[in-house]
């Protein structure tokens, strides 16, 4: 019998595996550096996330195996009568389980967590190059009502 | 001679004027409640923003007059080698000065602030119903590379 997929906040021991997953991706391989030792910038980011009550780095796992990762940010806004939002970013699943529902379970977990935190809205942006990802999120109930604009800074 | 537009972190005394601006907007009038006294949810959100070192509510002003508002959120991510991002949200200018460059100055200020905070990317989403807004951000150098997906939560 297959073990159930579970979720927990990532620990520093998971970081190596998380960066490996982020780098094993069509867009990620151009911008990540999965090396040993791991570049210090990853450890610093991990520490900044962990020390911030409004950021959660979450892993999906089965037994000892990490299967997926996502980051959820909770933000208070004045707009929408002072409503909190949850933003999902950096969703990846390990290549061996792609198409097996781990991504769906991750997002459902984030939705549940956003409700627990009292958010009125959950949001994310997805690169227009990821055509499958857009369909995936729409199937889960997200509406692509917005343009996602980015500017790189030097 | 016209006074220069200046910028500062909003105080609680600015909140009434900020909500008035948010409500005086095509989409905002459907979802905000500009009433006296101001609904408590706005005050609570203001306090949550102010007590979070990674959130800044910024106003543009000239003399005693508030001309615009925006919120900037700074977020550490594991992606992009552990890079920080700035997210702009809730950008509004007072109707009497629309088209006079206050919005441009607000966004330029946010870009400068994002650089000071060491962000590698600045981002925002804009409702696809706001056709002029998309052009406005593209003129400022943003690229609409992403779909912005949202889901309302009960």
Primary descriptors:
homodimer; alpha+beta; 6 strands; 34% helix; 33% strand
Please characterize this protein's 3D structure.
The structure is a homodimer of 154-residue chains. Chain A is built from six helices and six strands. Chain A is of the alpha+beta class and 154 residues long. A five-stranded mixed β-sheet of chain A has the order 1-2-3-4-5, sandwiched between helices. The longest helix of chain A has 15 residues. In chain A, 35% of the residues are buried. At the A-B interface, helix 1, helix 3, strand 3, helix 4 and strand 4 of A face helix 1, helix 3, strand 3, helix 4 and strand 4 of B.
Low-confidence parts of chain A: none
Oligomerization:
homodimer
Provide the succession of SSEs of chain A.
EHHHEEHEHEHE
Task: Tell me the span between the first and last alpha carbons of chain A.
Answer: 51 Å
What is the 3D form of chain A? Answer: globular
Across the major sheet of chain A, the strand order is 1-2-3-4-5
Radius of gyration of chain A: 16 Å
Mean pLDDT of chain A: 95
SS field, number of helical segments of chain A: 6
The chain-level structural class of chain A is alpha+beta
Helicity of chain A, as a percent range:
25-40%
Number of strands of chain A: 6
